[in-house]
Design goal:
- It is a single chain.
- This protein is α/β, with parallel strands linked by helices.
- It contains 18 helices and ten strands.
- The chain folds into three domains: 80 residues, Winged helix-like DNA-binding domain superfamily/Winged helix DNA-binding domain (Arc Repressor Mutant, subunit A, Orthogonal Bundle), CATH 1.10.10; 50 residues, Helix Hairpins, CATH 1.10.287.1350; 166 residues, Vaccinia Virus protein VP39 (Rossmann fold), CATH 3.40.50.
């Protein structure tokens, strides 16, 4: 049995100008240019091979130098011949090297997959963690495009948030991924003047990564972390590790229920884009109820469609949000429209060097 290799070029010879064909134009160069665009985005073999290598921590096993494949197989609990085929494929794609027959080693791209690399790529690509599961959800993309509904339930058997709640290990992995990128939290916090805030409520704040930044730069502020109970408990531990828990209250609850009152700033960082418009308005209304006339609601989201925005990233994330949870990325104007529906007035928009937007609202 043979299959067409994705690297093989289509043969346009039957369309080339030649004897007796009526002088048809030469299409080979146009076909080649089109193929050069299409070929790299049709390959599923290499993306899955990289994810398997990450899931098996193969880069960690080669950290001290080249390792014979039999030893790699023994240490990774894999089949030696299958592992050889995997690694040799990746070698030809520029990931890992084979300095001697059947012995494999790191190169610079492969080194990005080590567990201690600050890029965090191994954790992001691990098929047993949230990052890998998030990618596998795209095997249900056809369902999403046909129905407009998230693929997650079709692939994993339960809606996104229910699936996380029923799988504690996956929930931990999700929280860890949401807490990654401390530089983005610092970027968002630096764009707002916290000097007039006495009590900040981080709604859907995960394990408190952003809240920790706020408490660090504004030592007189007190805080409340709101998220589901298990996540809030992990947040308590994270903030305790930074010596900040004494200034923070913890509310383990859904943000669709009435929120703790008394804050003068309610922060929603990367929350609203997880939800469709109806659910997003409900969340914003809960924040408006708790904040009252004198409080502020601060949405922090990726800047969609504004100056300096990356349209390709916006398009990808917009598709991801639909596939995973039915959410969507939005422009600043679209977030403002949600705020209006929730009875809020958008009073200010601030952008950050990392392309985030802070939308400040009041009731």
């Amino acid at each position: 049995m043979t299959t067409a290799d994705h690297d093989h070029h289509p043969d346009p010879s039957h369309d080339r100008d030649g004897d007796g064909d009526g002088g048809q134009p030469d299409r080979s160069s146009a076909w080649q240019a089109a193929w050069d665009v299409l070929a790299p985005v049709t390959d599923l073999v290499t993306p899955m091979a990289v994810r398997v290598a990450a899931s098996l921590s193969l880069a960690d096993l080669m950290a001290d130098g080249p390792v014979p494949v039999e030893e790699l197989a023994r240490r990774s609990g894999t089949h030696a011949d299958a592992l050889t085929r995997l690694l040799r494929h990746l070698v030809h794609r520029g990931v890992f090297t084979e300095p001697a027959p059947d012995s494999f080693a790191l190169n610079e791209p492969a080194a990005l997959l080590t567990s201690d690399h600050p890029a965090g790529m191994r954790q992001r690509l691990d098929l047993g963690g949230f990052g890998g599961q998030m990618d596998l959800a795209f095997t249900g993309l056809l369902h999403t495009v046909r129905t407009g509904q998230p693929a997650w339930e079709t692939v994993f058997g339960a809606p996104f948030w229910h699936h996380l709640a029923a799988n504690p290990e996956m929930s931990v992995s999700f929280d860890a991924m949401m807490a990654a990128g401390a530089d983005y939290a610092a970027d968002a916090v630096s764009a707002y003047d916290w000097s007039g805030v006495r009590h900040v409520v981080d709604v859907g704040g995960g394990t408190g990564a952003l809240l920790a930044e706020v408490l660090s730069v504004a030592p007189d502020i007190r805080a409340t972390l709101v998220d589901l109970p298990d996540t809030v408990e992990r947040g308590r531990q994270h903030l305790a590790g930074r010596g900040l828990d004494k200034r923070c209250a913890f509310a383990g609850q859904s943000f669709f229920d009435p929120l703790p009152a008394g804050g003068d700033a309610y922060v929603l960082s990367g929350v609203v884009h997880d939800w469709d418009d109806e659910a997003a308005v409900r969340i914003l209304r809960r924040c408006a109820e708790a904040a009252g006339q004198d409080g502020r609601i601060i949405m922090i989201e990726s800047q969609g469609g504004g100056p300096g925005a990356d349209p390709a990233m916006f398009a990808e994330m917009n598709l991801r949000m639909l596939v995973l949870s039915g959410g969507r990325e939005r422009t600043v104007d679209q977030y403002g429209a949600l705020a209006t529906r929730a009875g809020l007035t958008l009073t200010d928009v601030r952008t950050t060097p990392y392309g985030q937007a802070l939308l400040i609202c009041q009731a």
